[in-house]
């Protein structure tokens, strides 16, 4: 499995440096993909279509996002995987990162958004899923993650989404209070 991970990572990263336009696009997506997704989620707070349900999903998304990133920080205490560029496996297009490689915070954040929307049956989840796939691909493309890092981040997101779904229930007193704000 390790050999496949390295081969897949190097295959994706091998495309970098061949097109200035593609490099710039992937660097841009890697840098602002997650913030744009967050804005896409936050901007829906004031939609009038199925307002309570939409707001519940938005709050659940934020909770899954934060829980997933918190779990990543715990994992990082125990898993000290070097970045692929530190192992001489990839060509790095962006600044070096100070933390370890596994799991990918970008993957966790973007998949937490997409998977929450999909789990709650929101069709916009497919748009967020496409964005999450592009963001995670960009992280391998720019040389900062292994493929398994982004898969690990997606798994962390899935666990967080399922946990939030089990704990934060729709139409409870606290949910009505939170979704009634503004």
UniProtKB/TrEMBL annotation:
Is Cell wall biogenesis/degradation a UniProt keyword of this protein? Answer: no
UniProt keywords (A-Z) are: Membrane, Plasmid, Transmembrane, Transmembrane helix
InterPro entries given in the database record: PAP2/HPO (IPR000326), PAP2/HPO_sf (IPR036938)
* UniProt domain Phosphatidic acid phosphatase type 2/haloperoxidase: residue ranges: 56-165
Coiled-coil boundaries:
none
The record, for Gene3D superfamilies, names: Phosphatidic acid phosphatase type 2/haloperoxidase
Residue ranges spanning the membrane: these are: 25-46, 58-80, 126-144, 150-168
Q: Under what name is this protein listed? A: Phosphatase PAP2 family protein
Species source reads: Rhizobium jaguaris
């Amino acid at each position: 499995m390790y050999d496949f991970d390295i081969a897949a990572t190097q295959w994706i990263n091998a495309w970098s440096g061949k097109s200035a336009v593609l490099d710039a696009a992937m660097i841009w997506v890697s840098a602002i993909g997650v913030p744009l997704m967050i804005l896409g989620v936050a901007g829906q707070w004031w939609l009038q279509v199925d307002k309570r349900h939409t707001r519940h999903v938005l709050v659940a998304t934020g909770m899954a996002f934060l829980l997933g990133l918190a779990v990543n920080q715990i994992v990082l205490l125990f898993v000290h995987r070097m970045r692929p560029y530190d192992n001489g496996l990839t060509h790095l297009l962006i600044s070096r990162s100070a933390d370890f490689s596994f799991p990918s915070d970008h993957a966790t954040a973007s998949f937490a958004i997409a998977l929450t929307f999909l789990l709650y049956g929101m069709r916009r989840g497919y748009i967020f899923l496409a964005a999450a796939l592009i963001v995670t691909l960009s992280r391998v493309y720019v040389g900062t993650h292994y493929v398994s890092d982004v898969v690990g981040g997606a798994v962390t997101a899935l666990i967080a989404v399922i946990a939030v779904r089990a704990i934060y229930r729709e139409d409870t007193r606290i949910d009505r209070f939170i979704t009634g704000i503004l």
